[in-house]
Amino acid sequence: MHSVETFRNLHGEATEWRRYLHQHPELDYRLHNTARFVTEKLASFGINHIETGIAETGIVATIQGEGGDGPTIGLRADMDALPIVEASNKPWSSTTPGNMHACGHDGHTAMLLGAAKHLASTRNFKGSVALIFQPAEEGALGGQRMVQEGIMERFGIAQVFGMHNAPGMEIGKFGICDGPIMAALDEFDIIVKGRGGHAAAPHRTVDPVVIAAQIILGLQTLVSRNTDPLESLVISVTKLTAAQAYNIIPQQVEMAGTVRTLVPGLRDFAERQILASAKGIATGFGADIELKYRRHDPVTFNHTEGTNLAITAARNLVGPESVNDKIKPRMGSEDFAYMLEARPGAFIFLGNGPTAGLHHPAYDFNDDALPYGIGYWVNLVETVLAA
Fold first, then answer.
1. What is the pLDDT of residues 145-180, one digit of tens each?
2. Which residues fall within 8 angstroms of residue 30, CB to CB, at 6 or more apart?
3. Which of 21, 95, 209, 256 is buried deepest, with most CB atoms within 10 A?
4. From residue 208, how far is each of 204, 253, 269, 272 by CA, in Å?
């Protein structure tokens, strides 16, 4: 196993890759320049088996070890950016107006490229490694689509692993836990249908604004009074659209929001009870509602064996004191969850230092984290596929 010092020689080159990607962000599946850049780098490392065009712009490249026959493990990095105007003021800021790498996927891609370069030159493992470069993590279900297009079967992947940077966690630190580590994500839209009229005569209307306000408050009791406080559930109403004038009570109000939970069964509960609560409140006021409920990412669930392998790899890189193996699960979501539903494995967090938070206009991936991410991937491969 290696300490992080083994990978300092890749720091400068990986920083150049990362900053190039940061300057040229692309969204969802439209990662044509990013995919071309990644493919060219992989080929330059002497990796011969590179398949492109998976889920439109996704890539899977395989490296065969020299330690004999063995299983294949998958290492995943996401590549897409976000539609945010950058405010980091860094020299390598986005050159594409309105788009930026606000979640560190540029860093994730650079770290996996760095690991690919090292592994292709050493091949000190048995079996093989599948390097998964995924498009469309940010809400467009690229992870699900890669699974649906058969990457696990096509490349014979037995276990799969993911990693994400964590602002606020010190550089050189890792965080992981067994079981649920990130929440499921669902979204809902509610249309409250009342009877509009003049704002000066509310008694002649069925005011959907007032009803919507009651529904928002009612939904909070589903969390505070209808679920076990030890089972995480978050229901947040984030959009509200009503009339566009001061003196109009509208015919209807449109609401939207998100549901997050670490307990899969609570997704059924939330969908059922949001409908019942909203409809009951609306009916009491003489109105009606329409609900659309969509399920997105499932719970990101770390399997015990994969978690233990990840902990071992990280501890061998930075020491036991720098690996928190019992972090609290996070209520954000990750479409890597689909890969962990398809194959056992684990997802780990890597410290990004005291930077702005994810999805913030001032965020920037911390290049000091690059050797740690590269080293983690290499140690993980040599742990799981010990020659």
1. 999 999 999 999 999 999 999 999 999 999 999 999
2. 57
3. 21
4. 13, 6, 25, 22
Query: How far apart, in whole angstroms, are the C-alpha atoms of residue 261 and residue 293?
Result: 15
Helices (H), 319-369: 337-342
Contact 98, 85 (CB under 8 A): yes
Domains and CATH numbers, the chain: 4-181+299-384 (3.40.630.10), 184-295 (3.30.70.360)
Q: Check if the beta carbon of residue 74 is closer than 8 Å to that of residue 157.
A: yes
By three-state DSSP, how is residue 11 classified? helix
Q: Quote the CA–CA distance of 228 and 57 in Å, as a whole number.
A: 42
**pTM for this structure?**
0.94
Torsion (CA) 368, 370, 374, 377 in degrees, nearest 10: 100
**Secondary structure of residue 24 in the 3-state scheme:** coil
Tokens of 82: 């976000």
Instruction: Answer whether 301's CB lies under 8 Å from 180's CB.
Output: yes
Backbone dihedral region for residue 76 (phi beyond 0: left; psi -120 to 50: alpha; all else: beta)? beta
CA-to-CA distance for 278 and 192, rounded, in angstroms? 9
